């Protein structure tokens, strides 16, 4: 299937600020790969507060603007927006003003758990963020060891108002059969609402978003794949996304970003 627009809400395309792209040259190569995959709009989401990387809101916005200017100069048809992959911490509420949402008004935010576990305070933090008006979108739950062991944990987060993002590579088997099976199960049970690349570098962690969406269309139906894409658009526009509603909803005429 073909998408006129393809929105990728998780990637490490900005140069030199985390374990993603190391240089402007590599970022441009990633951009070209994204375009080749059909991606038209991308949310740059460097790691933030994960013990290794701190990427303040203002710095990400500035770098993102510079990168967009370079893309425009090179006539690469890709729109880049500033975001963060926010690692869960006990003091996120105190740091709230320095956090970037998926959308401009921070109705949604990418929230990363440690790979090994789900912190005991995660449920409380999701509640606190929602109280601030932000719905957390849990990054790649299929790669979290505790959720892998017990999918009910993810079910509960979704029931409590969070959303979740599946990584395209996981779905098509790039992290092994077990992760692929879990990813399939999450899609089947509507435990994830978007699929994103989480691209870091080439050729290792690349763009396979179209491939994953096509695989979803093949495994389930085209409507489900379209719903994932539509949800990504809704999130970047700050529009409502229902956790369990995967029937495609017609796009509004006027959106916050003029691209849509
Ligand atoms: Fe990431």
Structure description:
Keywords: Hydrolase, Protein phosphatase. This is Tyrosine-protein phosphatase. It holds the Pfam family CpsB_CapC. InterPro entries: Caps_polysacc_synth_CpsB/CapC (IPR016667), Pol/histidinol_Pase-like (IPR016195). Its EC number is 3.1.3.48. The protein has a six-stranded parallel β-sheet with strand order 3-5-6-7-8-9. The model is unreliable at about 245-260 (pLDDT under 50). The relative contact order is 0.15. The protein has one domain: TIM Barrel (Alpha-Beta Barrel). The protein is an alpha/beta fold. The protein has helices spanning about 25-35, 55-75, 120-130, 145-150, 150-160, 170, 175-190, 210-220, 220-235; strands at about 5-10, 40-45, 45-50, 80, 85, 110, 135-140, 165, 195. β1 (about 5-10), α1 and β2 form a beta-alpha-beta unit. The protein contains nine helices and nine strands. It is globular. It binds fe (ii) ion.
**C-alpha geometry:** globular
Radius of gyration, CA atoms, in whole angstroms: 17 Å
What is the CATH architecture descriptor?
Alpha-Beta Barrel
The domain count comes to: 1
- pLDDT below 50 for ≥5 consecutive residues: which ranges? 246-260
Strand content: 5-15%
CATH secondary-structure class: Alpha Beta
Mean pLDDT: 92
Hetero ligands: fe (ii) ion
CATH topology: TIM Barrel
Helix content: 25-40%
Strand line-up of the largest beta sheet: 3-5-6-7-8-9
The CATH superfamily name is Metal-dependent hydrolases
The tally of strands reads 9
Q: For the report, how would you describe the main beta sheet? A: 6 strands, parallel
Distance between the termini: 20 Å
Alpha-beta classification: alpha/beta
């Amino acid at each position: 299937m073909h998408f006129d627009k393809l929105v990728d809400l998780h990637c490490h395309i900005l140069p030199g600020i985390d374990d993603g792209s190391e240089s402007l040259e590599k970022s441009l190569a990633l951009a070209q790969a994204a375009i080749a995959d059909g991606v038209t709009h991308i949310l740059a989401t460097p790691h933030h507060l994960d013990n290794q990387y701190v990427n303040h809101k203002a710095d990400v916005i500035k770098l993102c603007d510079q990168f967009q200017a370079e893309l425009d100069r090179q006539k690469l048809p890709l729109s880049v927006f500033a975001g963060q992959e926010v690692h869960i911490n006990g003091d996120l509420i105190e740091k709230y003003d320095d956090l970037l949402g998926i959308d401009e008004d921070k109705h949604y935010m990418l929230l990363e758990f440690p790979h090994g576990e789900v912190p005991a305070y995660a449920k409380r933090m999701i509640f606190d963020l929602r109280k601030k008006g932000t719905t957390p979108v849990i990054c790649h739950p299929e790669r979290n060891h505790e959720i892998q062991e017990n999918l009910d944990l993810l079910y509960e987060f979704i029931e409590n108002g969070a959303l979740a993002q599946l990584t395209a590579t996981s779905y098509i088997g790039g992290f092994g059969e077990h992760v692929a099976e879990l990813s399939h199960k999450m899609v089947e049970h509507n435990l994830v609402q978007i699929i994103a690349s989480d691209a870091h570098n080439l050729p290792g962690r690349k763009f396979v978003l179209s491939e994953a969406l096509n695989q979803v269309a093949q495994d389930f139906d085209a409507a489900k794949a379209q719903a994932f894409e539509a949800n990504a658009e809704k999130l970047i526009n700050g529009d409502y996304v229902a956790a369990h509603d995967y029937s495609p909803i017609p796009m509004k005429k006027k959106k916050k970003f003029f691209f849509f």
